[in-house]
Amino acid sequence: MINVYKNVDDIPVSLRTDAKSILKGPAKTTHEHRLQIIKDGSYPASPSVSYDARYKYIDIKKQLDGIYHGKCAFCETRNEQLHVEHFRPKRGGYYWLAYSWDNLLLACATCNSFKGNDFPLDKYGTRASFDPSYLSNINNHSAQLNQIERPLLINPETAPADVDRLLIFDEYGEVSSNDLCMAMTIEKCRLSRKALCNNRKKILDDLRNEIHACVNEAQGDLTILQSLLQHVKNNFVRGLEDETAEYIAFRRYILRTLIKEEIKKSFL
Ligand SMILES: [Zn+2]
User: Fold this and answer.
1) Which of 47, 186, 198, 265 is spaced 20 to 30 Å from 160 by Cα?
2) pLDDT tens digits, 169-215
3) 264 alpha carbon to ligand 1 midpoint, in Å?
4) How many domains does the chain have?
5) What 3-state DSSP class applies to 136?
6) Residue list, CB under 5 A from ion ligand 1
7) Are residues 20 and 129 both part of a single domain?
């Protein structure tokens, strides 16, 4: 996970409370659906096209795609089938946030299904329930809710810019954290699942192969080796500027720690 910037004031048209119906005929606007859900006191229990389609509308999906660069909010895997999902689950007690801009993110089906409808809170947090005053700022009141609830899950959009520094990786691509919330997010979304570890490990393996190639090319000349390794490192740093790259948190971790060990080994 890395921090992701979302402009919470740049609300997709279909989610705005003053949006007119963008469908022809008698269809309700998203806000009218929202008011109906609030009146019912729950999100429809079984899948409902007319309700579900509203948080996946093309303008929402397009904006989220740009924000997340086509990657999952939690595991950073690139996927064409990313889903618009809810940070606070719409069927986990947060029905009134089903169409709130700051509650919608992009996630892969695997992370989302593991995350499920649980939304654990810190023991000092208080579970929020709907309050009519929320309607005046329904697309942007996560910050207020976070203060009340103290969630144990991390939202990449409201996390600090350096949130990835809470992650600790090993050379097998497994991830852990000493931070309570990050550890809970890793556990809930299963961010150390085998497929992700393999994908991350491949990045390190590729780097190792490049370093070995430098050792072979230098043929024992340490000055040449140093220069070749610097070139590899510079390329790796440049790769980090690509926001569309997968597993940026792991790449940053490699740069902070693992690359030094790999380079040290090449001089032995
Ligand atoms: Zn994912």
Assistant:
1) 198
2) 999 999 999 999 999 999 999 999 999 999 999 999 999 999 999 99
3) 33
4) 2
5) helix
6) 72, 74-75, 108, 111
7) yes
Please tell me the distance between residue 85's alpha carbon and the centre of ligand 1 in angstroms.
11
The residue type found at 186 is I
* 208-231 mean pLDDT: 92
Q: Which residues contact 103 (CB under 8 A, 6 or more apart)?
A: 86, 87, 88, 94, 97, 142
In a domain, 88, yes or no: yes
184 and 200 part of one domain: yes
Q: Is the pTM of the predicted complex or chain greater than 0.90?
A: yes
Instruction: State the Cα angle at 15 between 115 and 61, rounded to 5°.
Output: 55
111, 127, 159 — which closes off a domain?
159
pLDDT at residue 11 tops 90: yes
In a domain, 5, yes or no: no
Domain range for 154 is 13-159
Separation of CA 116 and ligand 1 centre (Å): 13
Q: Please check whether residue 4 lies inside any domain of the structure.
A: no
Domain contains 1: no
Tokens of 18: 């003053």
